[in-house]
Structures are given as structure tokens and as C-alpha cells.
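Final report, closing paragraph on structural work. Over the funding period we assembled a curated collection of sequence-structure pairs, and we close with a single example.
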Amino acid sequence: MFIFNLTYIKPILEVEKMLPAHISYLKENYNAKKFICSGRKNPRTGEVILCNCATKQEAEQIMEKDPFFKENIAQYEIIEFMPSKSLEEFKALMEKIK
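Its predicted structure, as stored:
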């Protein structure tokens, strides 16, 4: 599992211009069951996405398709982690999407 930690490197007006394309990218990855949750940071300096994929290479391939990445709107940090504790509901969800 991976956390995508996005930090905007362009002004928020440029972020807003690319938002429809980014939302389409998010929807595509939710439909593919690659994204589990996502949202803006507070204050609005970027976003966080929880990504369910098998390898860092796959995570990087997903990242590279984001319009925010392609248009240099946001800088990405990919953090790999292995959940060792979670709510039972989360475990059940993860079993469903495997």
C-alpha cells in the first residue's frame, strides 16, 4: 500500500485549471480499485491519496498518469507502508478489492 503525498508547486489558480482533469484521473483509479481514499490537505497546500497496488513501480506508473504530475502542478512523494493494524471494516474492504 502507498501514500501519495502531493504538494502543490504552482499557484492555486493553476491547480484549479487542472482540477477537472485530475478529478477524472481520480475517478479512473477509484473505478480500477487502486485508490481507497483521497483529499486536500488543510491548509490547501496539496493532497493525500491512499493507493492500493502491489509494487512501487505500479504506484509510480499510476502517479505518472496524473495531470498534476504531467503538468508539473504538484510534487509527489510516494510512501510505501504495510498496514499492521486497522479497523475490521478496513480489513474487510481490503479483502473485497484484492
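The longest strand covers residues 2-8. The radius of gyration is 14 Å. We thank the funder for supporting this effort.
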